[in-house]
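Researcher: I've been going back and forth with a colleague about how Tail specific protease domain-containing protein might be arranged in three dimensions. Neither of us has a model we trust, so I'd like an independent prediction. The organism is Actinocorallia aurantiaca, in case that matters for your notes. Sequence below.
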Amino acid sequence: MLGMLERRALNRALVDWTQFHAVSARSLGEAHAVIARAVEMLGDKHTFFLTPTVAAERLARRSAQTDPLPTGRLIDDRLAYLAIPSVAGWDEPVRRYTATGAALVRELDGHDPAGWIVDLRGNGGGNMYPMVTVVAPLLGDGHLGSFVGADGSVQSRWELREGRVLDGPTNKSPVPNPYVLRHLRPRTAILIDRGTASAAEATLISFLGLPRVRTFGEPTAGYATGNEGIDLPDGARLILTCSKEADRLGRVYDNNPIAPDERGEDALALALTWLR
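Model: Here is an independent structure prediction for Tail specific protease domain-containing protein. You can compare it with whatever you and your colleague have in mind.
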């Protein structure tokens, strides 16, 4: 595990790994402590190590939790409002989340809206791919963003193709959303706040660089980095940050908040003023 951190962690250059080369552990508890110390030295708020007990507790809470589904409504009978909440995992609830959101987009578009509002406030993240799939008709096919390594090289790109989000060659959409809007590339307002984090920031990044898109609210939480979950044989789990995220224009984001185009506590009011 120390070797993996030294080779793959985004902030690996900040740690003197030679101090760990001679470390030995006489128990799993000691090994956990060494790994936790190395993670702490990385100084990466998006990387964390879970002991078997904590990992099991989180999994139990996750299994008992019901994720909210996307919701929406018309405002002024001519503006489509779509709220995208957090969602995690890859199982049936994620498929239900995606199918519900896709159907909602089709329903709202049936009213021929003059503009769209995508609300990412309070979305703490989870799995970016169902979120991006739901809003796929607003984004259109093509390159959306990239995962960038510590050396600045592009590790992979996420893009849309016929309603499917592809990360490299891999289809990441649990349910495709190939619906085509009545008006392509509509005026779209994105609402964000300090609760917009991780996968929600990746969803935000998928919109950045598009024409007729503007963001409103407060700076995001600042977790725009790519993570990988690594399970250890004893039940411990490492969430390792391996990359930064970049938008379609190549602008790179990391663990710093993403500022909105227009800042203010009442993001919805600001967005409505712009759209109207």
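Researcher: What would you highlight for our discussion?
Model: I'd start with this: The mean pLDDT is 94. After that, consider the following. DSSP finds nine helices and 14 strands in the chain.
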